[in-house]
Amino acid sequence: MPSEYIDTQAITWAWLERFDQVNKATRNLIAKLQTPLAKKELSDNLTECIRSNSQWLKKQYFSPSDVYPRLAEQHCAFQFQLETVGYSIGRLDDLYGSLGNFTLYAMPARIQLGPLSSRSCMARVDGVLLYARDTFDFVGDQYLGHWGYGGIGINPVAAAMVNYIGVGAPPAWHPDAGWLKPATNQDFKYHRHITGYGGDLLIFSDLKLHPTRIEVEVVL
User: Fold this and answer.
1) Coil, helix or strand for 82?
2) What are the pLDDT digits (tens) for 59-115?
3) ∠ at Cα 100 (161, 188), nearest 5°?
């Protein structure tokens, strides 16, 4: 994805922590980090990285940013555990308006390698980096809510009509905002087509360090 469509500034972890559903998902994510499946995924990622970048075997330690300069590349190579953050139907807050459903990820902060055998080494991860990732990709005809000059509303029936049945939704009345028109991905794409502005967007939050220690074997 072109760098101009990757945003790493708009969403901060300090802002995300204002929301209960994010804090709950963070606790769930941290609880997974020491599980056997998480360690296997981490081991597989580090094995592939070191096989592709054997010079890191000569380093005392390295971080994902030492291997790849962009966060998007670090994410693809090093993330090993995730947790989805959802929302409740009818709950409209700043988090829903900004991200809707999105995902929290974890990747190692610093990797220290030590000898184990002639064909493997021990990788010790000192801390993990937590971050959020979301995509604004306007694929299909997804329902984006009912919009108007007076505000925004979510109509569950309209969402079902557009997202699951595949038919258009009618305008809806909101007691505070008045008449609202349904908006979908197609509306955005039409606006993008006639104005030349806008595009699919990949968003990353900043990184939050979570102190922990994880040890896995890396096969050389």
Assistant:
1) strand
2) 888 999 999 999 999 999 999 999 999 866 666 678 887 887 899 999 999 999 988
3) 65
Burial profile 154-184: b = 16 or more Cβ within 10 angstroms, e = fewer: bbeebbebbeeeeeebeebeeeebeebebbb
Tokens 């493997």 sit on residue = 120
pLDDT given for residue 4 in this prediction: 80
pTM greater than 0.85: no
Q: Order of strands, edge to edge, in the sheet holding 172-174?
A: 151-153, 143-148, 178-184, 172-174
Rounded CA-CA distance 64/73 in Å is 9
Which DSSP state fits 165?
A: I
Question: From CA 90, how far away is CA 148, in angstroms rounded?
Answer: 17
Report the C-alpha gap between 205 and 87 in whole angstroms.
18
Q: Kindly state the DSSP code that residue 161 receives in the 8-state scheme.
A: I
